[in-house]
Amino acid sequence: MKTSVKNRRKNIDWNLAGLSTIIKLNNIIGFLPIKLDEILSAVVREVYKLFSPNTCSIYMTKDGRTMELVALQSSDGLRPDIHKQDKVEFCAAIRDGLPFIVERKPFCPNRKNNAEGPMSHVCIPIIAGKDVLGTLSLDFDHDTVFTHDELNILLSITNQTAIAIQRSLLFEKLENEKAGLERAYKEIRELNYALQKKMLELKDTHDRLIQSEKLAATGELAAGLSHEINNPISIILNRIECLKMESKELFLPEVVLKDLNVIYSYAAKVSSIVHDLLIFSRHHSVEFKHVNIKAIIERVIEMLQNDLNKSRCMVHLNMSASVSDIYGDTDRLEQVFWNLLTNAIDAMPHGGNIYIEAESSRERPDFLEVRVSDGGEGIAEENLHRIFDPFFTTKKVGRGSGLGLSICFGIIKNHGGDITVKSVVNEGSVFTVYLPVKPS
Predict the structure, then answer these.
(1) Residue partners of 254: CB distance under 8 A and separation at least 6
(2) C or N terminus of the chain, fewer CB within 10 Å?
(3) Edge-to-edge strands, sheet with 119-128
(4) What is the pLDDT of residue 191?
(5) What distance in Å separates the CA atoms of residue 391 and residue 296, rounded to the nearest whole number?
(6) Half-sphere exposure of residue 206: CA atoms within 13 angstroms, side-chain side
């Protein structure tokens, strides 16, 4: 150390200078953001200003086994090479928990390399309770002798540093716990959301199970009734046809012919309902194969064109380029879209637009999603859960049997798909059909 520095050290009022440094450090540490590297750098900087050593450094212990240099200031800007090894057992200050002082010695037992000649060195342990957190080390020229006042100042500074380190570690622990609580809260929210979603799915599954049971029970009943009714109705229709063909030979008056036509129309209506019941009960042959859904829908639109024109309704068909063939029964799928379009027409007595859109489902991979939308009268919310029930209808008496949507539901389920509805009164309805693109 140069003479001027040595003389300056002799002339220092250590009590006043030490107190000033401790107060300054307290203010810096107290107002700094609680970042450990900034705290330790401030301590080293102020200790270096006060004592003017060759080097001033702070080492921190890691896992109670090794030491790591975390803050340094030196006269030559070089990193000191102090410890033999980074293990804490090779540091006397940490090992004994007491200040380690070397004055005017040709070597230091902690040094890796003692070829530099005599030196003076002080190493103060940074202790918090029973924990040794690290050391504050200062190197001086070999003729430096440490006074009692200097050591007291260093001890005060290390005590202050230990409190700051503890506070920083505690703050870091609290931040980690806070982050952990936030993660846990987020996970709980996600689990709660997933649970609510599962409960809704369970309720939907339960409702559909009840629906399936209703359909199964009604289907069995419908199958038996249909066969019992179909035979006499067929005979009635056949006999009316024969009577009409033989009307001249039998000299049937015009009024009788009119009555025969009325009877025929009503018998035909009964026959149509029986036909729907047979479809509903699934007592019919089906043939699953690869079919083009666009061609099916276009064919249904063409067949209903007269009804569309009379009702002043227009169909807008929009098929995504990603739509592929599906695996299904052509006749049954025609029945589904016939019923859905007929319902849409009936829902708009003053005419309007019907939109049919089809695309690969984003919600359900490997499914085709077909939406049939209308701007009609809509369905009241209290009726939505019953809309697929057999014989339930919101139409006026004589306008429907209540089997159309039940038939759609049964056919789509038989294809391994699903059908849902969203509706707002006086705004319209959207029926969404999900069909698998591969055999289920």
Answers:
(1) none
(2) C
(3) 66-74, 55-62, 131-140, 119-128, 100-105
(4) 92
(5) 26
(6) 6
Residues 6+ apart with CB under 8 A from 263: 236, 240
pLDDT by residue (tens digit) across 136-168? 988 887 778 888 888 888 888 888 888 888 888
Return the DSSP state at 377. Answer: S
Asked which of 54-63, 321-330, 332-341, 364-373 is least confident by mean pLDDT, the reply is 321-330
Q: What is the DSSP string of 212-268?
A: HHHHHHHHHHHHHHHHHHHHHHHHHHHHHHHHHHTTTTTT--HHHHHHHHHHHHHHH
Q: From CA 162, how far away is CA 135, in angstroms rounded?
A: 10
> Of all residues in the chain, what percent are helix, strand and coil, respectively (each to 5)?
50, 20, 30
Q: Which of 21-30, 102-111, 165-174, 413-422 has the least mean pLDDT? A: 102-111
pLDDT in tens, 196-246: 988 988 887 787 777 667 666 666 666 666 667 777 888 888 888 888 888
Contact 387, 347 (CB under 8 A): no
Which amino acid, one-letter code, is at 194?
A
Q: Classify burial at 66, counting beta carbons within 10 Å of its beta carbon; exposed 0-12, middle 13-18, buried 19 or more.
A: middle
- The Cα 281–Cα 411 span in angstroms is 10
| Identity at 437, one-letter amino acid code | V
Reduced to 3 states (helix: H, G, I; strand: E, B; else coil), residue 183 is helix
Q: Is residue 417 helix, strand or coil?
A: coil
Q: What DSSP state is assigned to residue 3? A: H
Q: Which of 356, 332, 352 is nearest to 278 (CA)?
A: 332
User: How far is it, in rounded angstroms, from Cα 210 to Cα 415?
Assistant: 19
pTM above 0.85, yes or no: no
> What is the pLDDT averaged over residues 326-352?
90
The Cα–Cα gap between 82 and 40 comes to: 19
- Beta strand ranges found along 31-161 (DSSP E): 55-62, 66-74, 100-105, 119-128, 131-140
List the beta strands (DSSP E) in 33-118: 55-62, 66-74, 100-105
Burial of 408 (0-12, 13-18, 19+ CB in 10 A): buried
